[in-house]
Amino acid sequence: MKFDIISIGDATIDTFLFLHEAQVKCTIKSEECELCFPYGEKLPVQSLHRTVAGNACNNAIANARFGFKNAFVVSVGEDPSGNWIIDALKKEGINTAFVKKDKKTQTNASTVLSFKGERTIFVYHSPRVYALPPKMPKAKAVYYTSVGLNHEKLNNQVAAYVKKTGARLGFNPGTYQMNAGLEKMRSVLAVTEMLFINKQEAARILAVHGSIAEHARLFHNLGVRTVIITDGANGAFVSDSQQMYFLGVPKTKVVERTGAGDSFAAGFMAARLQGKSIPEAMRIGSANASSVIMHIGPQTGLLSMAQIKNFIKKYKIGTPHLVK
Description:
Helix content: 25-40%
CATH architecture: 3-Layer(aba) Sandwich
Order of helices and strands: EEEEEHEHEEEEHEHHEHHEEEHHHE
CATH superfamily: Ribokinase
Largest sheet: 10 strands, mixed
Strand content: 25-35%
CATH class: Alpha Beta
Low-confidence stretches: none
Shape: globular
Number of domains: 1
CATH topology: UDP-N-acetylmuramoyl-L-alanine:D-glutamate ligase
């Protein structure tokens, strides 16, 4: 059996807490801000929502809605949360043959503090032994993203799989992968076709506080063919080593931003797998992300390709322009 795309990474259950009593404090001439609330007090929560989530899970569900034949490689706990994730995947038509239940650990969990449209996430990754399945199926593409500690073996296995099969690799490193440092990511970056990161993550991984163009060039030097760097509400930059494109964000309502990066990456990669140009892929990614932030959670707003076409027209998402 051959798949269009296989998503590899952790899944989680997200609990969203919508706050109405908090403060945001930013330093002068800095983009770094802090969410603050009284220490040691009981604070009211405006509303609460729970959903299946996780970068790889979001990607797999997005791919299913694009009509791709896809599978998900993940470990979950043998608990109600793990069953909830598996049921959600099956409901979307995703192959769950490579979902492993771990009797010794819990399913991952995150708590999302949402305040005025922005979010802060507390992430718990249950300790796992990460490895590809013994009989990893063939796929046209692979999307590799956030996992927990002790993932270095998996990094090398993913790189070896891409080299052996020729699968096109999309890579979106998570917190623990970035914490492990650039050296541990080199094998993956060397075979990455599409790297998805945000502006702050690029500087963190490279340990260089340069421009977006400088960061893109350094990633190209490491072997990445297409570098996609998002800049929050400002938009996204994409470099193919020859030229760089920029696309701003359309004006839509913002409920909360969880999953915006995942949905942009899923739309962009799906478009490229379908043979579309980088500028068109950016428009598709932007539409998907803009729809997601209009809803609670990372999956409710995920669109089909037909819906994305209508969204682009409705919200007048223009053509990316070249950055000189």
